[in-house]
Amino acid sequence: MKKYLSLIYLGLLLVGLLTLVACGTSGNEESNTTGSDTESDSTEESAADEPEEKKVLQIGTDAAFAPFEFMETGEIVGFDVDILEAVMVEAGYEYELKNVGWDPMFASLQQKDLDFGVSAITINDDRKATYDFSTPYFKSTHMIVFNEGSDITSAADLEGLKIGVQNGTTGEDAAEKIVGENSSTISKYETTAVAFMALANGDIEAVVTDNVVADEYVANNPDAKVEAITDEESFEAEYYGFMFPKDSELVTDVDAALTTVIESGKYAEIYKEWFGAEPNTDELLNAAE
Length: 289
Description:
- The chain has 289 residues and is an alpha/beta fold.
- It has two domains: 125 residues, Periplasmic binding protein-like II (D-Maltodextrin-Binding Protein, domain 2), CATH 3.40.190; 89 residues, Periplasmic binding protein-like II (D-Maltodextrin-Binding Protein, domain 2), CATH 3.40.190.
- Strands 11-10-12-9-13 form a five-stranded mixed beta sheet, sandwiched between helices.
- The termini are far apart.
- This is Basic amino acid ABC transporter substrate-binding protein.
- Keywords: Lipoprotein, Palmitate, Signal.
- It comes from Aquibacillus rhizosphaerae.
């Protein structure tokens, strides 16, 4: 009898031990599962906290408009290029600047193949109907470039002369305001550089273009024997801006960065490097309001 009781007690003891082992295993498994879920949730939260990576912006230009953008030893350089770099660093964007040409840049922006364009682009109401613009970053006006000895003292003297302009620019608009829209005396060229070549070859008698570009050409080409004049009564001041596809979400970021670049003194530093003068940044900031 004692023998049987001992066996019974032994069996009960084994059952108890097995139960404890089973409970312990179950507890461990539950603990491991909970730990895994916690780690997974933590990873998801960390991923959610990470800032969304910004895309590399595709930016177009027409690198034939010194000193704003032009080719030098195979690279696009110029005042616009340096301003663009400062703004993109401030805004935190990486970008690729592509020399696509003037007319193709406009078409690519309209089709949203480019994120925006920078190419001494004048802000005006006609363009605003199709594109969006940043706040202004440069004030400009127009000048007339002609061969020395020509009897040109004002825009009115362009009447009856052969005039060269870059096609699709406000230089074309300025010339047409003087001699008439689609006048046969106006020759339209792909770039201002080609218009200057036409002037040198005697194909035209004057070029109407932006003042800084005109001054740059006269200063850098003394053998061309050309001079330049302005006519503030005939040529209104205008402002350049970055041009975007309509309803672009980038405008806000770029405007904020551009304002910071102007207010911080970085803009003035770049301006003086290219033009050797102090810019009127207050005028730019007021024009943006």
